[in-house]
Amino acid sequence: MVEAVLIDLFSLPANLQNSLQDLLCNMLGTIEECSSIAAPLVYVMCSQTERGERNDEQELLPALKDFQTLKKTLEVVRALTTAAALYSIKQRLDEKDLSTIKIILPAFRRDLMKVYIAQLFTAVYQFEFEDLQMVSDCNNLLIAEPQPEGQALSTRDVERITSEIQMYLQSLPNLKGELTILRSSLIPDGIFLHGFTTRTGGISYIPTLSSCNLFSSSKRRDPQAVVKENLRRLANAAGFNPETFHRVKTDHGNAVCIMGKTEPDSYDGIVTNQKGITIAAPGADCIPVLFADPVRKVCGAAHSGWKGTLLGVSMATVNAMVSEYGCNVKDILVVLGPSVGPCCYKLPQESAEEFHRIDPKCVRLFDSESPYIDLRRATRILLETGGILPKNIQDDSVTDKNQNITFCTACHPDKFYSHFRDGTNFGTQIGFISIKD
Asked: Where in the cell is it found (predicted)?
């Protein structure tokens, strides 16, 4: 069932733009008569004229008088660009948690609109299209059956749309305050650039993703274009090049990518000795772990959830630094980033048993159905067993009463995202590191 209808009048010829009421009357009549659409929300997308915003309510009263079922659910959205208008409508859809949309638009706009949608929406949304057949007399405006697909847009057209979207997103203000980066005193800043992000300073507006979400998924509502803009703002604040940024392709395993070699399809660890390359690991309860060897000038990052922790992803990353770049394990510094703490995180009994085998102190209320788990302690023990010096591991939830990095993500909704706390449409922060030039 269609939940919303978008009528695209953005690029109509000037003579039709000036006859907005007649255009709406024809289309609203068609929508109201369509039995498959039960009083949906209707958004009309128009270009903003040189006269600026007009009083849409007064202007549309004559057009709406005969459509009582739609009168309360119709909204006109005017903007200078298609990107601005469509993003504004997306915000309205997200506020109401709507995802099934019919778009009525001129045939010549269909392929263009699909490019906008591909960049501003994710697979959470479902779109269907109806072509608007235009004739010179707008009173005879008709909804036509979809026409065969035309030729694909040129690369230049796609680049123009991408640029328009990027420019619009760059113009949006930061949400939830300024962008904040947490840094460790253990990693020497004369050699490495590094940090852990928080949730402030980006443009993501959906409550559980607001505001500096740094991961896009087909199951969430934040599109790649928004995440890319959040990353651009982070890169500007931190001082790295977003074009040479590499994030692990998580699979909750222990595979490690060696920068410069063939990239695996998925991996939870990544290492490099290349200067100017920024590598990163995500976390939204899982631990983003950073590694730095100031002697050999090598760095690494790992994503350590409960599965990856048990599979030893952190030591796998250390071992890759040793085998690929000749690092001495005693020189490697390790920092555990913001992650869910043993105060909040639970696992089923069978999974808890595996952590209990690492160290009984990794599990609290072991005999309960869902014991509390200390992912960080398990990670520290496995690292120390592998040869990392205890003094070279920073987990300030136990070493520093004045925590500055290893906060519990679930306990601090103002600072961090948490899958455990927020559910499936959760945001993601990252830990990042690079070798300075």
From this structure: Cytoplasm; Endoplasmic reticulum; Nucleus; Peroxisome
Q: pLDDT by residue (tens digit) across 220-230?
A: 999 999 999 99
Is residue 235 a contact partner of residue 241, using CB atoms and an 8 Å limit?
Answer: yes
Question: Which distant-in-sequence residues (6+ apart) come within 8 Å of 363 by Cβ?
Answer: 352, 355, 356, 371, 372, 373, 374
Return the SS3 of 198. coil
10-54 pLDDT tens trace: 876 655 555 556 666 666 666 666 535 555 788 988 887 645 544
Q: Which residues of 146-169 are buried (b: 16+ CB within 10 A; e: fewer)?
A: eeeeeeeeeeeebeebeebbbebb
254 occurs within a structural domain: yes
* pTM for the full predicted model: 0.91
For residues 430 and 303, state if they share a domain: yes
Phi, psi of 413 (to 5 degrees): -65, -20
What lies within 8 Å, CB to CB, of 275 at 6+ separation is: 434, 435, 436, 437
Q: Which two tokens stand for residue 281?
A: 């690991």
Q: What is the CATH number of the domain that holds 40?
A: 3.40.50
The residue count of the chain comes to 437
Residue of 109, 100, 204 lying closest to 147 (CA atoms):
109
* Strands across the sheet containing 393-394: 256-258, 269-272, 298-304, 287-293, 333-336, 393-394
CA distance 91 to 95: 6
